[in-house]
Amino acid sequence: MGQVKGSGRRVGVISDTHGLLREMVKEAFRGVDLIIHAGDIGKEEILTALAKIAPVVAVRGNMDRAEWALKIPETKVVTIDETQVYLVHDAAKLDVEPNSVGFGAVINGHTHRPAVIKRRGVLFLNPGSAGPRRFNLPVTVAILRVHGKALEADVVEV
Predict the structure, then answer these.
(1) What is the CATH number that goes with domain 3-157?
(2) In whole angstroms, what is the distance from residue 141 CA to residue 128 CA?
(3) Alpha-carbon gap, residue 66 to 137, rounded angstroms
(4) How far apart are CA 15 and CA 3, in angstroms?
(5) Residue 155 in contact with residue 116, Cβ under 8 Å?
(6) Mean per-residue pLDDT, 102-108
(7) CA-to-CA distance for 158 and 147, rounded, in angstroms?
(8) How far is it, in rounded angstroms, from Cα 30 to Cα 97?
(9) Which of 40, 102, 110, 158 is most buried, taking the most CB atoms under 10 A from its CB?
C-alpha cells in the first residue's frame, strides 16, 4: 500500500502497541480509509487485526526484533490524497528535512507522548501509545484527516 487517493481521507494512526490491541482502538478506527502503525508493534497479530478494519502501513520500531518484524521497513513514504507522509518510529532518526523534500507530515511514535505540532509547514504527528499504560501517560491513538494537501489531526484517548 503506497497510495490512497480521492476527495479526502480519514487515517487511523497508532503506535507503541507492544502486543496489545484494545477494543476501543477498533471503535476509534471505524470507517477509516487507512491505518498507519508507527512502530513497536509487538506481535504480528496486531497488524492482522488492524487489517480487518482497513489497509495497514507500518514501520518497525526499536522493540520490533522478532523475525516477522524484520520484513517491515524502518521508514516509509506514503502518498495520501495529494500529500506525502514520512513514517519513522523515532523522530530523532529523521534522515531528511521534511519540508525541503515536500513531505506534508511526519508520523512517529517511540516517546509514548501524543503530539500534534506544525513546524515549517510540516505536520508532526505522534499518536502516543495505544499499548500497555506507561509513565502515567494517557492511552491514545490519532485520526488524521487529509484533503488534498490540507492536513488536520486529533489525538483520541482510548
Answers:
(1) 3.60.21.10
(2) 6
(3) 26
(4) 20
(5) yes
(6) 97
(7) 25
(8) 33
(9) 40
68: left (phi over 0), alpha (psi -120 to 50) or beta: alpha
Cell of 130: 495505544
Q: How confident is the model at residue 1 (pLDDT cuts 50, 70, 90)?
A: very low
Give the other-Cβ count within 10 Å of 84's Cβ: 16
pLDDT tens, position by position, 22-61? 999 999 999 999 999 999 999 999 999 999 999 999 999 9
Q: Is the pLDDT of residue 6 over 60?
A: no
Of 143, 156, 154, 124, nearest to 33 by C-alpha is 143
The x, y and z cell numbers of residue 9, run together, are 481521507
Within 31-78, where are the H helices?
44-51
What are the domain boundaries of the chain?
Answer: 3-157
In order, the DSSP letters of 65-107 are -SGGGGGS-SEEEEEETTEEEEEES-GGG--S-GGGGTEEEEE
Beta bridge partners of 85: 78, 105
C-alpha cell at 43: 506481535
